[in-house]
Design brief:
The chain is built from three helices and seven strands, in the order E-E-E-H-E-E-E-H-E-H. By secondary structure, the chain is of the alpha+beta class.
Amino acid sequence: MSDPTTMRIFCDDPKHARGKIAEIDTLTRIEDGEWITNEQLIAKGRPRQHGWRAANQPWGGFRHAYECRLCGTRLSCSPKRLNGMLDGFAQHGYQQVTLRALVLLASTPRC
């Protein structure tokens, strides 16, 4: 993949007052296939704490943790799971995805 792909994550839940839309994050797929925040891309370093939280995982891994400040919708998943979901959207030509769609996909058992 020669060009990085950018994916906007937003929340447009109907519970938001006056139809507001919350910007959650924007991620860019880099050459190794990993999705990183634009803040991380600018820093050109390994993922910092923005958008990530340490989890009590047996392997000591990290999880993406995003939460809408307007309605409280939360997504918590492994980087591998988030990368797979964003890859799927990108392969179908999407450049933005709702937080709700990611939450629903993350809660679906994998085939």
